[in-house]
């Protein structure tokens, strides 16, 4: 890992003492230095990507035995579950975890990365929101150990990633529903530029053409912030148009969609079959057992920690690890 920028580096470039730089960056420079010089110091610190080290004075070892974990959205059950597995695995190796949720916001994600680095974490496990390529490339170029989970950015090369093949997962969903006699499926997904979400949709569309022989697959995209407001009309429209099965691309969408079916007393699977991506404990309260795509969360959690620890100990080989999903069959996609 490259040497991090220090107060001395900034002081040498400006031509002042490290004490002066410290006063400025801690907003205690009033009466000690001019505003012009203070602003110059702040700009240089920003240009050099300086992050304050809050624990350096007390740190006696090369490592803090702390790992940073930044997930895309804590409200998503997938991330809360995988965070638990990562934390459990870290404890086995005597590492503590500093946790943060970016709430699918690129700027908040960048700020959390800064916080992790300022706390001198030994490495970071990330589920990055969209538009965060610059931050990921900065971490890579600085030689900071990190592993990207779930998300994938084709433009960012030579980094360590672990996740699933979302294309094949959706393709398998169509093969399953065709086997059970469904002929007019639809996919309800998010209107998002995230690579893994696009891959789920492409897998569904391709399978509908190749397996079902449909010219055009039905894919309904809804903006996440409008999901609660718009999904009811979309579900009722699909039902009216003769859709015999709906594939929800996330468990968050599934929870909204299942509530609509209950509200309108739609019989599952007699009137409409259901398949969900990812599992959720709340599925158990639905009056029909739910068919869902299971991701190997425990495996992804443990392997992401193992991969990160290897990086921390000097293994610089970049890997892209892809793990298999499976379909857990419930009555919601029973033969139609």
The count of helical stretches stands at 11
| Count of the separate structural domains | 3
CATH class of the largest domain: Alpha Beta
% residues in beta strands: 15-25%
Radius of gyration from CA coordinates: 24 Å
Characterize the biggest β-sheet.
6 strands, parallel
CATH-assigned fold name of the largest domain: Rossmann fold
What average pLDDT do the residues reach? 92
- Low confidence ranges: 54-60
Q: Identify the overall geometry.
A: elongated
CATH architecture of the largest domain: 3-Layer(aba) Sandwich
Describe this structure in words.
This protein is α/β, with parallel strands linked by helices. The protein has three domains: 7-47, no CATH class; 66-164 and 297-323, Rossmann fold (3-Layer(aba) Sandwich), CATH 3.40.50.2300; 166-295 and 327-333, Rossmann fold (3-Layer(aba) Sandwich), CATH 3.40.50. 42% of the residues lie in helices and 17% in strands. The chain has eleven helices and twelve strands. A six-stranded parallel sheet has the order 2-1-3-4-5-11, with helices on both faces. A six-stranded mixed sheet has the order 7-6-8-9-10-12, sandwiched between helices. Helix 1 (7-14) crosses helix 3 and helix 7 (166-179) packs parallel to helix 8. It is elongated, with a radius of gyration of 24 Å.
Quick recap of the structure?
With 336 residues, the chain is α/β, with parallel strands linked by helices. It has helices at residues 7-14, 18-25, 35-47, 77-92, 106-118, 133-141, 166-179, 195-210, 227-240, 251-263, 297-312; strands at 66-71, 96-101, 123-126, 146-149, 160-164, 185-190, 218-222, 245-248, 273-277, 291-294, 320-323, 326-328. The termini are far apart.
């Amino acid at each position: 890992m490259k040497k991090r920028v220090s107060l001395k580096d900034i002081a040498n470039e400006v031509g002042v003492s490290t004490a002066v730089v410290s006063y400025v960056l801690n907003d205690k420079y009033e009466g000690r230095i001019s505003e012009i010089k203070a602003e110059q110091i702040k700009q240089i610190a920003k240009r050099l990507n300086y992050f304050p080290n809050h624990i350096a004075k007390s740190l006696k070892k090369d490592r803090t035995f702390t790992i940073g974990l930044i997930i895309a959205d804590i409200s998503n059950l997938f991330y809360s579950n995988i965070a638990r597995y990562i934390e459990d695995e870290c404890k086995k190796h005597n590492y503590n975890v500093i946790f943060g949720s970016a709430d699918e916001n690129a700027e908040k994600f960048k700020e959390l990365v800064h916080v992790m680095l300022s706390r001198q974490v030994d490495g970071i496990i990330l589920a990055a929101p969209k538009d965060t390529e610059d931050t990921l490339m900065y971490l890579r170029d600085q030689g900071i150990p990190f592993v990207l989970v779930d998300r994938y950015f084709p433009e960012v090369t030579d980094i360590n990633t672990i996740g699933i093949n979302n294309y094949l997962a959706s393709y398998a969903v169509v093969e399953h529903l065709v086997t059970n006699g469904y002929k007019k499926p639809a996919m309800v997904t998010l209107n998002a530029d995230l690579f893994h979400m696009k891959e789920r949709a492409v897998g569904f569309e391709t399978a509908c053409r190749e397996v079902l022989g449909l010219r055009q697959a039905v894919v309904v995209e809804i903006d996440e912030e409008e999901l609660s407001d718009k999904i009811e009309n979309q579900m009722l429209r699909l039902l009216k148009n003769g859709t015999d099965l709906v594939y929800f691309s996330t468990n968050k969408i599934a929870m909204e969609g299942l509530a609509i079916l209950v509200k309108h007393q739609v019989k599952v699977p007699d009137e409409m079959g259901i398949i969900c991506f990812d599992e959720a404990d709340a599925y158990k309260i639905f009056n029909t057992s739910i068919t869902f795509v299971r991701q190997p969360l425990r495996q992804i959690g443990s392997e992401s920690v193992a991969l990160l620890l290897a990086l921390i100990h000097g293994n610089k080989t970049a890997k892209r690890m892809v793990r298999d999903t499976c379909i857990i069959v419930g009555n919601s996609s029973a033969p139609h």
